[in-house]
Amino acid sequence: MARAPKTDHDRPSSRRVGALSALWPFVRPYRATALAALGALILTAGISLILPLAVRRVVDGFDVGSALLDKYFAAALLIVAALALGTGARYYLVTRLGERVVADIRKAVFDRVIGLSPAFFERVITGEIVSRITTDTTVILSVIGSSVSVALRNVLLMIGGLIMLFLTSAKLTGLVLLLVPVILIPIIGLGRRLRVLARENQDWIAASSGLAAEALQSAQTVQAFTHESATRADFARVTEESFVSARKRIGTRAVLTIIVIFLIFSGVLGVLWIGARDVQAGLMSVGELVQFVIYAVLVAGAVGALSEIWGELQRAAGATERLADLLAAGDAIADPATPTALPRPVKGQIALDNVSFSYPSRPDQSALRDVDLTIRPGETVALVGPSGAGKTTVIQLLQRFWDPAQGQITLDGIDLRDMARSDFRDSMALVPQDPVIFATTARENIRFGRPGATDAEVEAAARAAHAHDFLMALPDGYDAQVGERGVMLSGGQKQRIAIARAILRDAPVLLLDEATSALDAASEHAVQQAVDRLAEGRTTIIVAHRLATVKKADRIVVFDDGHVVAQGTHEELVAKGGLYAGLARLQFTDGANTGS
Description:
The protein is of the alpha/beta class. Helices cover 61% and strands 9% of the residues. It is built from 19 helices and ten strands.
């Protein structure tokens, strides 16, 4: 079931629109474009303020000669042309700036998130992250590419218009200014409410995206358990909550718009009534009144637009906060400030020294306790034991997806925490129990192990993993699209591609986590031969339930309840009796060689 998003009360107090300042580092590299856009904006705002003067000249100049009147209209036409050019330039510069900044934000957020440890993804649903990268950045694009520009333009029009109003008629302007406090009160009060609702709406959208992504990625499981109705109901509930939240936000903004527009234009009508009386009394010319009306409309329109834009800025502030949360996300697993370089060539000696570990989600349950284990360069070591004994946890710790709570893990004598993760991971090849297949071609999935590999090297790796024949049987061979998560492939085919990927990587340390668990007996035998060849000269750690796959290992380490309870060859461990002998008896003697 989808998790409800946090309410505004669950979070620290917001910086409100001030949160938009977090966008400045992304705008800074494009200051020249921003300044050019600002110049075009000032130009168009200035021209807009000049137009009423031209109109006044025209209105008051009806009784002048036709030649002078023609000049007035010609000048007005030139002003309009300059306004059009300036507006087009402003739109191009601002929109391009918005697209560039948002593209940089998306890359920065993705770059940050893709390197975070599994602990982060225990707290945040992947679909929510995708929503932030897409939906939230779209909101920010709207603000940078439109709202901020429009807001600045309207601020200039409001200020410039007020100045021109004062110069046209100080008396009428004074009456207009009396309306300002009345208008600001609902803008400020309802604006705060809009910020809360905007953030809540974005959170529900993210929750909806997270639920949809999770359900669609597991569509077969949903259908197999006839869970479609419940999943639909769950998604409908979250989507409806998103709609309700959006409806509240839209309603609040609509009320704000109604109040502001009514106050503004009713006030303007009152001032115009007084101005019309002044014209009748001969205190103003008709042209001056028309000029004042145009400036009043400009100012009123600017204030009305700012009230709407304020809601957009509030919404963008919420989106910016959410993205800033991702960029500032803490991670317990980090590279040291001055990492120690792993000496080359890598020998592959691995040591676990008094290692204890518990997963953050299960802090009271130890996955490993006081484990001491040394693996010599080039040695093949198998980790066996019941499910949950800690075998896969060792693989996770060797990749430094987690850090041990106690003790240390070293590669060639250097603590993993003292090295850059990319440095030692580059020397490891992993075949996980549930291989990840990407939605691209079979060739590119294998090449993922070494992006610079040639097609011939890819094919050689596939042959070694006994994947060549089934790949050639696909409609487009190696260039066949395998679908999202390899949906076009069987479980055994996915594992053979993952093994080919590891073969292509050609790393000195090989980690096999149930690498043949999804293969039939014939394929398992063939792939086992490939694994045996691959393991030659490399440090190899094999996690397996089926003991037939590890009988030839140099050493078998038996885990139980997070402890190492026995070590030795297959023959030695069978002779000793105990847990391993019991497992061997079940799988070999009783014929239960199905894995457990």
